[in-house]
Amino acid sequence: MPLNKNIEVDKIEVVGKFSVQVRTSTVITESQEDENGDEIEGSATELSRSNHRHVLHPSDDWNAKDESGEYIQDERVRNICDSIFTASVKDEWVIQQAKNKV
Q1: Which of 35, 38, 51, 77 could pair with 73 in a Cys bridge, judged by C-beta atoms 3.0 to 4.6 Å apart?
Q2: 100 membership: H or E segment, kind and range
């Protein structure tokens, strides 16, 4: 019975003007095999699920890549950040952060 690990972004939320919340789930499943050792489609049973959450702000680099050249953020997350974190929103963010430091 093979175990499978799947990591997926399963929730993206825009919170206010300056935040995108991202939930990533890691799911461990176990599949049944037929007598030939082939996985039986639809037989996966979820054994474990864990969630990780992080927040992106206009000053973050959501288009960053890891050392292998792969994007760190999911494509849907990058597209949402590109569309809502416009130049004017980024400017407002900088002003708000400067005010909060005082």
Answers
A1: 77
A2: helix 87-101
Instruction: Tell me the C-alpha distance between 68 and 86, whole Å.
Output: 28
**From the CB of residue 17, how many other CB atoms can be counted at a distance below 10 Å?**
12
Mean pLDDT of 80-96: 96
- Nearest by Cα to 5 from 41, 23, 39, 31: 31
CA distance 15 to 97: 17
Average pLDDT over residues 3-26: 95
pLDDT for 79:
97
CA distance 9 to 77: 9
Local structure of 93: helix, strand or coil: helix
**pLDDT of 102 higher than 70:** no
What is the rounded end-to-end Cα distance, in angstroms, of the chain?
59
